[in-house]
Specification:
This protein is mostly helical and 194 residues long. It is 77% helix and 0% strand. The protein is built from nine helices and no strands. The longest helix is centred in the last third of the chain and has 36 residues, at 137-172. The chain is elongated and about 50 Å long. The termini are far apart.
Length: 194
Amino acid sequence: MTDAARGPVDRLAAFAGRPAGSLLAAAWAAGEAVVLPLVPDVGAAAFVLASPRQLGRLLVAIAVGAVLGSLLLAGLFAAAPGTMRDLIAAVPGVNDVLLEAARADLERAGVAGFTQLGPGPPLKAYALEWLALGGDVPGLVAGTVVNRVSRIGPVLLAAAVLGWAFGGLIRRHPAAAAVAYAAFWIGVYAYTFS
């Protein structure tokens, strides 16, 4: 079957299964770990809805990308801590309350404080506060992986379950599925930014 003959969900599934799909997820995760306000699961969950078997590969790509982004943030923080703090604080969805919450989690639990189930401070807030507290690079790497697996893993698992359960319906009604998907993420970000 040619690309033109397949529907949009099948084309999305094919892209998700290619190296380019993993590379996009990793690049998005790296950018989000430093300055992007949109989490990589916005795109990755769409990939997993279309192709649930890509869950593991995409989660690994996101974790690798997030580690690279966190290491970049660490290098920039080492060179200019005040500038990086101002830059992170200016990212939409980041504020002093979230930075303080991340700091409190890390002070209370160390690397385990990076664990995040559901909404809360973004990874960049945890990484920034870890570095400001004098945390080391191995801890930053471990914490970044813990954060991405605990925060994004459940989202991708839910997308996989929905993809397996409703894949036929999604393929038959891609426009309605896209509207529902967009409405979900708009709701998540409206809640996050409120």
